[in-house]
Design brief:
The chain has about 200 residues and is mainly alpha-helical. It has eight helices and no strands. Helix 1 runs antiparallel to helix 3 and helix 3 packs antiparallel against helix 5.
């Protein structure tokens, strides 16, 4: 299997990491324990209070899933590997594995008056993910790891998207210190855009 795909073990490891990270997101989706539920109306009220946590879960699950789709597509374009590429890939996995923590913060505090740290940290993690995509693209270029000139061009395009993501999410992280709820809404819109782009984009 390794002869046909030199990154088979790396891809299998990454798939496991993505799956675990996506599963861990649901741990923070729970009903608030501040008041006992003694009626149907009380349960509906508790579910409404859990809405931000559910929304944060859905957003982060979508982010992890979209990242996994793009990661899978990238590894198909790479015909070899190198230590630099593996470590750049590790940074991407770090951003994915860490995402459940700011997701929990976002779900708990986004509607409060002190949401700024949660929204800023969330976008900072996404900015780190942009850095990881840039490094993966550059290590492919430095090591001549692409399968062909055509796939090398596709990977360079991925690196450009990484720069766009880095700038956008770093800016959002800063703006979240003043406008956390607005930035949270913008973050959702951005990922809807990434999702639509991924669905509609035709392979070259």
């Amino acid at each position: 299997m390794s002869d046909a795909n030199p990154n088979a073990r790396l891809e299998a490891f990454c798939d496991g990491v993505f799956a675990i990270a996506a599963t861990l997101l649901v741990i923070d989706v729970k009903l608030p324990s501040t008041a006992p539920i003694e009626s149907t109306a009380g349960l509906w009220l508790a579910l409404r209070h859990a809405g931000p946590a559910i929304a944060a879960f859905v957003l982060s699950f979508a982010i992890i899933f979209i990242t996994w789709v793009n990661h899978h597509a990238t590894l198909k374009l790479v015909g070899k590997s190198s230590p630099a590429f593996i470590y750049a890939n590790g940074l991407l996995l770090l951003s994915v594995v860490f995402l459940p923590f700011p997701t929990g913060l976002l779900g708990e505090y986004v509607l409060t008056d002190h949401a700024s740290p949660a929204v800023a940290l969330y976008n900072a993690v996404l900015a780190v993910q942009g850095v990881a995509w840039i490094l993966m693209s550059e290590t492919v270029r430095w090591g001549s790891l692409a399968r062909s000139e055509r796939t090398a061009a596709q990977i360079r395009a991925s690196g450009r998207f990484g720069w766009v993501a880095l700038v956008i999410y770093a800016l959002c992280a800063v703006l979240a210190l003043r406008f956390p709820r607005t930035v949270a809404a913008i973050t959702v819109v951005i990922w809807i855009f990434w999702l639509v782009l991924g669905i509609t984009m035709k392979p070259e």
